[in-house]
Specification:
Blueprint: E1 11-15, H1 20-31, E2 35-40, H2 43-55, E3 60-64, H3 70-84, E4 89-92, H4 108-135, E5 139-144, H5 157-177, E6 182-189, H6 195-201, H7 205-212, H8 224-235, E7 246-249
Parallel strand pairs: 1-2, 1-4, 2-3, 4-5, 5-6, 6-7
Helix pairs in contact: 1-2, 1-8, 3-4, 4-5, 6-7
The chain binds nicotinamide-adenine-dinucleotide.
Length: about 260
């Protein structure tokens, strides 16, 4: 039987598309037939991903985007429609690297950066994207939250609070734009094997994976491709009856979070 392309004819923006999870999502979208605008605060990283997609026979362009800047968010949406004719899919992946610290230790600047990038950036991208999705006849928004948006963690008030708010924003988007055939869902990854997550508390990916893996029911940390598979599901008609909710991709971590004395 011929392969079924789940996102054939879709046009997607991936913010934070130069990061590890964003890259995996952009590649998987393209391999499922979507055209992808890879947007990242680092144009160099976004370009590398778009080049790679094109080298593999896909359709992609790269743009520099700081999701905290309304004008840039509006422009990226506009460019996507100018280049590719429409917008149907938005993956909000960009997030700030927030230092660890209690509210006593954390600077106001760090707190604000976490909320500006992790939450307000999603608000801005959705603000400008929904009109184009409506014009396209509908669409799907995928917001990357975190398992840490469901629970509190030591010395992570800004990250946990901003990701918890992403879950709420997602519900409101689904409510307000359901009538326009626009679905909104979030993904909450557990610890994924990425450099950024590793270097927050460990010296290397290997050290982080060895420490975190046993806290997961599947005995290991997650892979970026596993988050990308969730993003494809939520962006495609395979999830047509799903909106305003969260896909927890955490290797079972939250199912037994109360039993560990060494939270990771
Ligand atoms: N890695 C994990 O274990 C893990 C777990 C749960 C949730 N997440 C979430 O997954 C997402 C991706 O994480 P990652 O591990 O791939 O991190 P990453 O650091 O590799 O990717 C984040 C990307 O966002 C970009 N970015 C930062 N600020 C930006 C801004 N203002 N505007 C546009 N782009 C900006 C960075 O340049 C980077 O390419 C984040 O939302 C993160 O919170 C990750």
């Amino acid at each position: 039987m011929a392969k079924q392309f789940l996102l054939k004819g879709r046009v997607a923006i991936v913010t934070g598309g130069g990061g590890e999870i964003g890259t995996a999502i952009a590649h998987r979208y393209a391999s499922e037939g979507a055209t992808v605008l890879v947007a990242d605060i680092s144009l160099e990283k976004a370009k590398a991903v778009a080049d790679d997609i094109r080298a593999n026979g896909g359709l992609a362009e790269a743009r520099a985007l700081d999701v905290t800047d309304p004008a840039q968010c509006e422009q990226v949406v506009k460019s996507t429609v100018e280049i590719f004719g429409k917008l149907t899919t938005l993956a909000n992946v960009a997030a700030a690297a927030t230092p660890l610290g209690t509210v006593e230790e954390l600077t106001l600047e760090s707190w604000r950066t976490a909320f500006d990038v992790n939450l307000t950036g999603m608000f801005l991208m959705c603000k400008y994207a929904v009109g184009e999705m409506r014009r396209a006849g509908g669409g799907a928004i995928v917001n990357i939250a975190s398992s840490h948006g469901h629970i509190g963690m030591p010395r992570r008030p800004a990250y946990c609070s901003s990701k918890g708010a992403v879950l709420q924003l997602t519900k409101c988007l689904a409510i307000d734009f359901g009538k326009d055939n626009i679905r909104a869902n979030s993904i909450s990854p557990g610890a994924i094997d990425t450099l950024r997550a590793a270097l927050q508390r460990f010296k290397s990916r290997e050290e982080a994976n060895a420490a975190k893996g046993p806290a997961y029911l599947v005995g290991r940390t997650g892979k970026t491709e596993e988050i990308a598979a969730g993003a494809v599901f939520l962006s495609s008609d395979e999830s047509a009856f799903m909106t305003g909710t969260d896909l927890l991709l955490d290797g079972g971590y939250l199912a037994f979070k109360g039993t560990t004395t060494n939270p990771v």
